[in-house]
Amino acid sequence: MRRFSILLLALAALCAARGLKGKPGRFDYYVLSLSWSPQYCAGEGANKGGSQIQCAPGKRFGFIAHGLWPQYEKDWPEFCAVGPEPDRILVDKMLDIMPAHGLIRHEWRKHGTCDGGNARQYLDRVRRAYQQVRIPDEYKQPLKHVNIRPEVLKQKIVQANSPAPASSFAVLCDGRFLDEVRVCLDKDLRFRACGRDVRDTCRGNAEIIMQPVR
Q1: What single-letter DSSP state applies at residue 214?
Q2: Is 111 known to be catalytic?
Q3: CA-CA to 123 of 20 to 30 Å: which in 59, 104, 109, 147?
Q4: Are the CB atoms for 165 and 193 separated by under 8 Å?
Q5: Active site (annotated) includes residue 151
Q6: Which residues of the chain have pLDDT under 50?
Q7: Catalytic one among 44, 85, 106, 111?
Q8: Is 106 a catalytic residue?
């Protein structure tokens, strides 16, 4: 019994050291984060390791899957467990929609460990969620800057995903530039209304700019 108690204390200490927050599988819904890759590559991604795949000229990445995040109605869990990392073969298979090895592994540690399954199951769910969202053709791989009102962009994405409600989507900006679109899905990956933590952030801009693909 004493040995078991010591083991539990050691596990609790490890969890505290890793900053674990939440229990695997216990959450309310998902947020699919679709990052606008040209904006990332024009800013912080320009000098970050691992961006060679995503930001190399000619790759022409548009919206990429930044991650699929288990979410509470308010707040979210993260780093829920310490488990096996996705292997290189599994990571390589995700590079067409998550084009950075470090991003894939980070998303598994921070968010995937809260999903309740293993790395393969989580990354499969990321792909299925990503493939479910339809982006209007004119915004998939624009070769020139696109100036558009944020509410119009959101409306067109909502229309492309009808009958999904507008409350399932949020458009986020980095200053005057499109940064990300977030999509709220239930545990069966069906569109649902976002919680209070997922909101549009472009409302102060009459127009926003979509950087062209590289």
Answers
A1: -
A2: yes
A3: 59
A4: yes
A5: no
A6: 1-19, 49-50
A7: 111
A8: no
